[in-house]
Design a protein that fits this description.
174 residues; 6 helices; single chain; mainly alpha
Length: 174
């Protein structure tokens, strides 16, 4: 049991660095873990994250925290630019601008990587919505197919919802 806990802590450390925008080589150096192990742990984390709502929730929290951290760093870099302008230090201003570009680049990379999780969630939601639509269409077909008056009302209402260019709805009589 302790081995599992230690393993999951290692996975979390690697994932945390990954979400911050570090690549596998940087994570390997930072955490003093062989690069091949980092790659393996990241694959494991991505699999768990894509299959677990709890992990996706924790990843969103980590993402929000990292995003706030980047915002603070950028704010501090802008303060350096203001100080450099006041003091006339062109090199300090130039370095601060480069720092902002680097921070923003890492932030964008982090958000793009996190987008993979969001796409999985959107895909799941879309599949669930399609399943519900099919179920509703089946119910409407079965119920209205038995009643000619109901059938006409359902078709009229569906055409109102779908508009003039909407999907055609055909209810077959049984």
């Amino acid at each position: 049991m302790i081995d599992i806990i230690e393993h999951m802590e290692e996975v979390n450390k690697v994932a945390s660095e990954y979400i911050k925008g570090f690549n596998e080589t940087e994570i390997s150096k930072e955490l003093d873990i062989p690069r091949a192990r980092v790659s393996s742990l990241l694959r494991e984390w991505k699999t768990m994250a894509s299959n677990s709502e709890a992990v996706r929730s924790r990843a969103r929290e980590a993402l929000a925290g990292a995003d706030q951290h980047y915002s603070k760093l950028i704010k501090q870099a802008y303060e350096i630019i203001e100080d450099a302008n006041t003091q006339g230090s062109l090199s300090a201003k130039n370095n601060a601008i480069k720092l902002i570009l680097d921070i923003e680049s890492k932030r964008i990379d982090m958000l793009q990587k996190a987008g993979l999780l969001e796409n999985k969630e959107l895909s799941d939601q879309l599949l669930e919505t399609e399943r519900k639509q099919e179920l509703l269409m089946r119910i409407l077909t079965e119920v209205s197919g038995k009643c000619p008056t109901c059938k006409l009302k359902v078709l009229n209402r569906l055409s109102e919802v779908s508009g003039p260019n909407g999907e055609a709805v055909v209810i077959h009589e049984s």
